[in-house]
Amino acid sequence: MQKRWLLKQTTSHSDLAGLTELSATILANRGVTSGLEVAATISPDYAEHLHDPFLMKDMAGGVKRILQAIKKQEKILIFGDYDADGVPASAVLACFFKQIGYEHFDVYIPDRHNEQYGLSVASIEKFAGEGVKLIITVDCGVSNIKEIKRAGELDLEVVVTDHHLPPAELPPAVAVINPKRLDDTYPYKFLAGTGVAFKLVQALMAKGKFTAIKPGWEKWLLDLVAIATVADMVPMTGENKVLTRFGLLVLKKTRRVGLLALFKALKLKQQFLVEEDIGFMIGPRLNSAGRMSHASQAYFLLMTDNDTEARTITTHLEEKNQERRSQVTDILAEADLKYQAAEIPAVVVLGRTEWGLGVLGLAAARISEKYKRTTFIWAKNGNGEIKGSCRSGGEVNVVDLMAAAGGREFFSDFGGHAFAGGFSLPESRLEQLEETLLKAYEDLPKTEVIEEEEADAKIGLDDITWATFSEVEKLAPYGLEFPKPVFWLEGVEIVAAKSFGKTGGHVELVFKNSKGESIPAIAFFSCEGELAYDQGHIWLGVNLAPGRRVDVLANIEKSTFKYKPELRLRIVDLKQSI
């Protein structure tokens, strides 16, 4: 399915802070137009552009209770989530307690497959029996009303730190620290869970009289904040952008033994680390622990001081990540087996109870693309609930489809946008899922759902220079709601084309500018095995043979393969030139 290309038409403000027209256009296209916003983006100041943590509702109360627990030497439990936000958030608080020399704390991260998300009554009762007096939640807790009520009955107090949307009724905790609270006036609402935990550490350092910790020490926690902010895909705007920018600087200097072992295993060059390395390499390995085994392994990796343990955990995480990736292949093979000699229904529904929840979105996208069908893929979590991901085949909005299938009278929960969504439902309704979706599909009006790609500017091959890259780089980091700039090149001639990677799978094209200089352009996971110029790749109807001309949407990036910086394009989309 071909995408519609659009050129953004935002009015730029090149007079702001002496910006070039290109930089001003990129910023204006992302809603950054005031001098203050530009300064925070291009040259953030740690003191000026991070907000006072005590502006957050309940921060003072939470800090007071934690300092009281420290003074009384009470047993504190850090309760985390099992993903690449909850694990670093747990590590942030654990590092703080270790740094001040406080030993009476533990960290608990639940099992994704056998325990519910967040606190449970069973876990509360277990902690109370172990003598815990204070629980600090990170990246969870804001919806745990009955669990925190039970904690109160057991003389166990809770400080909640979270970033998820709160329910109408807040839990009866000592403090509920969450910038998304409706009654919270904190200037920035979109911190990751680790970002909220970091603000708590800032506040504790401001109020506590800790002789073992120097002012500014908390900056060394920003590597964890950057990892979580990128991996959890919260908006890369405002305070998140400032935290991540400084966090990447710390990550390039980090002495965490586990992260250094991970960099080595992934062949990441520490001095060149960028946000994409977190998003595509580091984050998935940390997430694979919770998705394929237990998230405690990722936590131990972040906390260990032992080289041997770090290497062992890194090997384990890489194995689990490979297992996750191979499971996508298994799901695709099952789809091929099921439909190779059968009529493909309008809605493809596939699932197995044992499939990993973390691979369903990728599998749904691949199957939908291959069969040109709206696709629903499901698996079962540890609580016996069916969870899944879905992708549109281009003819219906998947959220509208799920609403037409019964909405929350059929699904426990569902959501997303026109092209992609997620859902959950009781196992008792699983047998009805395919039939219900097919009937809803038949009754739903069909409208062509065309995916769109937006470009920031039209340029030529002669504009692909280090100067242009420098302008792009100084506005980093990029992410959700602040995407990497996309450039539109028209009628460029292909000089060479090949696949690369262990099994093919990736494509490299080569163009030449007017000086005869080669400009490589790559696209990962874009072909099946060896490249056939006119088929077997993701750009339907496009011939990639040398001599052919194509229109390209691409990012400009720096490759540091073998430590030799090289300017190249990362292909977003391709069309045959008319």
TrEMBL record:
Q: Name one GO biological process term.
A: DNA repair
Q: Would the keyword Nuclease turn up in this protein's UniProt record?
A: yes
Every DHHA1 domain range: 348-438
The cross-references to Pfam families, in alphabetical order and at most eight, read: DHH, DHHA1, RecJ_OB
Keyword Repeat tagged: no
Q: Which keywords accompany this UniProt record?
A: Exonuclease, Hydrolase, Nuclease
**SUPFAM superfamilies (UniProt xref):** DHH phosphoesterases
Q: Out of the domains of life, which is the source?
A: Bacteria
> What's a single GO MF annotation on this record?
nucleic acid binding
InterPro entries in the record: DDH_dom, DHH_sf, DHHA1_dom, RecJ, RecJ_OB, SSDNA_exonuclease_RecJ
Q: Where is the RecJ OB domain?
A: 456-573
Please state every residue range assigned to the domain named DDH. Answer: 75-229
- UniProt family annotation: Belongs to the RecJ family.
Under what name is this protein listed? Single-stranded-DNA-specific exonuclease RecJ
The species is Candidatus Vogelbacteria bacterium RIFOXYD1_FULL_46_19
